[in-house]
Amino acid sequence: MLPFTYALRNLFRDPARLLQTVGGSAIVVLLLIAAVAMNQGMDSVLSASGSPNNVILLAKGSEESLERSEVSLDAESAAATSISDITTKLGVAAVSGEITYQAPIRTATGKEEQALLRGVLEKALLVHTSVRLLDGNFPSPGEVMVGNLTHRKLGVPEEELSVGKNIYFGDTAMRISGRFTAPGTVLESEIWFDRNDLAILTQRDSLSSIIVRMNGKSTDEADLFTFQRNDLELAAIREDKYYEKLSIFYQPIQIMTWVTAALVVAGAVFGGLNTLYAAFASRIKEMATLQSIGFSRKALFTSLIQESLLATLTGTLIAFILAYFLLDGRTVPFSIGTFTLTMTPSVILTGLFAGILLGTIGTLPPAIRCLLPSLPKALRSN
Amino acid sequence: MKLTTILKTSTLALITTLALSSCGDDKKTTDTTTSSETTTDEKDEAQTISLDAFIMKDAPADTLDISAMRKTASPGDPVSFDGKIIGGKKVFVRNFAVMTVGDPKKLTSCDLKGGDCENCGTPWDVCCDDPDEIKANIVTVQIADDNGKPVKTGLKGFNGLKELSEVVISGTVAKGSNKDNMIINATGIYVKTP
Fold this sequence. Notes:
The complex is a heterodimer of chains A (382) and B (194). With 382 residues, chain A is α+β, with helices and mostly antiparallel strands. Chain A has 14 helices and 14 strands. Chain A has two domains: 4-48 and 250-380, no CATH class; 53-216, no CATH class. In chain A, 48% of the residues are buried. Chain B is α/β, with parallel strands linked by helices. Chain B has one domain: CATH 2.40.50. Chain B contains four helices and six strands; from the N terminus they run ααβαββαβββ. Chain B has helices spanning 2-22, 35-45, 66-72, 131-136, and strands at residues 64-65, 78-84, 98-102, 138-142, 166-173, 183-193. A six-stranded mixed sheet of chain B has the order 1-2-5-6-4-3. In chain B, helix 3 (66-72) links the parallel strand 1 (64-65) and strand 2. Residues 13-48 of chain B have low confidence and may be disordered. At the A-B interface, helix 1, helix 2, helix 7, helix 11 and helix 12 of A face helix 1, helix 2, strand 3 and strand 4 of B.
């Protein structure tokens, strides 16, 4: 075997090429891990947003969109009294009739952006158990409570949505009474209104949905209620299944991300091949000389792979460091919430795997071409 | 010596990056569970009760259509009517003896629409009919226990019952039924066309 230092020293024979290989692989790996982190972040926020214990009662025919659904106000009390196995806290049934609405919201500085609004009463906290008040209090009439990541959805600095400030729904000013967190869920990007306020502002006399928290994970009791109350025209769907269905809606975006990443990787592989063909072509005589003094083709091939891997893995390491500082923990707003980019072990492994692939697959054809000629022919080559 | 130092530094940096990144992996709420847990829980809730006593060997005479029955019957009345298991995306409740029966003369199920209805989720859905028509021409049929609560056994598969089956039901109109919503406590089910 050739000493490892041979491969290492060869790297620095052409600093420009080294820079190109390291930089190229760093960019490819960075883009790839960004794509994986983005897809995982979106999947993760959608899967964490729904609880298997919660059942959403919504209008028949609107099972795929809470915003389109219209449920009679009477259905809330009917559900609370008719469905058995509902969780109760201090004698109060965990049933929350809610209004879900998307509308532009203006901040005090005049910035206007689409926001997710939820009209709730205090009972909402019995069903959305991940919600924790960080600051201030639950909204009373004329007030709203904002999620910890709402500022990202609105594209404004966090201070603009601090407790005591106003936001505007049309011309109506609403005072921010509190700030809440609901880690890893879409709720964290929402603005919670007093339910009656939102009903008046949106001129509706119905709810969007009723969320029922069950002791178990079965929807049978809720299904039974919808069958026995055909007049209410309700359908029951488990909350986690609802968000699972929503994630199908976002699949085209995720596929596009993968396609883009794949194109970048393909471009990098072909670019790398080109560079390495040129680099190895000039070393055919050198390889032949090494063969003539006793090194086998296998040893030379291993050395070339080592050399290439050293460059691409250095690039991979740089990509990881950049990703850690530039991507990890970043929040990305999308239509129904905000997700966080996280460098999970699977993201890191994908990057590492890509780095190894770049270093090996990209090297194979030029290395084979360099070592394939017979020794006399290779020694005579220019 | 130099090589060893470079290798050590690179390895240390890679390990540090991996370790730091894995720290942020616990950001999901604890509320989610696996589907296998769900299946187990749901199975636990199911109970088996024999429904054989509710099978009718022959169809009763003088049956009504659902639309006619809905106009005249009141809670407590004995009724016999023809119908088809149609009326929504779901027409059976999995672990309860409850199903939706619709009037096939008034409602057209998706299987008969021949692609004319875009919203069809299932062949037994009637989503393209007028919502008021649907409400007026379906009934909920249940097999109830002594307390009037549906027994905890699914009806699907019982005596060949399935979606789109044509049935004749005998029973009484349940307490609490009204002009907008009718529940029938079945005493007999005859399956015309399984």
